[in-house]
Specification:
The protein has 262 residues and is mainly α. The protein is built from eight helices and no strands. It has helices spanning 4-13, 15-42, 51-74, 88-94, 101-104, 112-140, 147-210, 214-233.
Length: 262
């Protein structure tokens, strides 16, 4: 029977598909680490108190990239090139979501509106990351090879999502509420399209590596399209709601390290 667990298990069991999966994940996390690092360096004076949390966010993303790379090397595998059509982070930037890399590569301080945009974008993408890692944690939390990594990364993604909720609510109370809701909606609708396209591309590459029959690939593609239709109609709303998290000041402390995965 085709299920999320059996699909992930099949990818996990094959060296080539596992290397591709980890390489895609490591690349995206490392890119997120760079982006957060640059944002922390360019935070405007009015939001300087946020800089340590943004730095912690970036350190977590860098750590996740190192963990995925370490998981490959423990199996004697090396990272493989990431196909452009599977590069979620870069495709989001091309769709105008988040802060442009040209701006982050400069030296000019960001504006308060830039910080609103950054946090709204992060709230949407961290929702996706938290849900994906929760799915992996549900099935592989006790796995001897990847269990610890899954639990650590999942906890971090939950922290990132809590941080975005808390900081966006703070900025909403400070008068940015209408802008936040507008940006959240724009980001969510763009993200679900990118997520659909990336999911189709990843499944296409995995299908060729694992030699899936056409019928299996067609069923998976139909499932991805069905998820997109649901998200386009109503599911996107979960990405734009804001509520004060139970876990307050989630990024207020030092980042944990990836040393145990080296």
């Amino acid at each position: 029977m085709l299920s999320a667990k059996s699909l992930f298990q099949e990818i996990l069991d094959d060296d080539r598909s596992f290397a591709l999966f980890c390489s895609i994940a490591a690349s995206g996390e490392s890119q997120g680490g760079w982006e957060n690092g640059r944002i922390a360096a360019l935070v405007p004076e009015s939001e300087r108190a946020l800089a340590p949390k943004i730095t912690r966010h970036g350190a977590d993303e860098d750590k996740h990239g190192r963990i995925f790379t370490a998981l490959m090397r423990k199996r004697g595998l090396e990272p493989v090139p990431v196909p452009p059509e599977t590069d979620y982070t870069m495709l989001l930037e091309r769709h105008g979501i988040g802060l442009a890399h040209d701006k982050l590569k400069g030296d000019r301080p960001l504006t308060e509106q830039d910080i609103v945009t950054y946090l709204a974008h992060s709230r949407v993408t961290e929702q996706r990351a938290s849900e994906q890692m929760e799915l992996l944690r549900r099935y592989f939390s006790d796995h001897p090879d990847i269990g610890r990594a899954v639990r650590m990364i999942s906890g971090d993604e939950d922290n990132h999502l809590a941080y975005c909720h808390e900081e966006l609510l703070r900025l909403a109370y400070a008068g940015h509420g209408r802008a936040i809701q507008r940006i959240l909606r724009e980001c969510a609708l763009a993200e679900i399209r990118v997520y659909r396209d990336v999911s189709l591309a990843v499944m296409d590459h995995m299908g060729r590596i694992l030699r899936w029959p056409r019928a299996k690939s067609a069923v998976l593609a139909a499932g991805i399209h069905a998820v997109y239709v649901y998200e386009r109609i109503a599911g996107w709303r979960r990405m734009v709601s804001l509520r004060m998290p139970q876990r307050r000041d989630a990024l207020g402390g030092p980042a944990t390290t990836a040393a145990e995965f080296a």
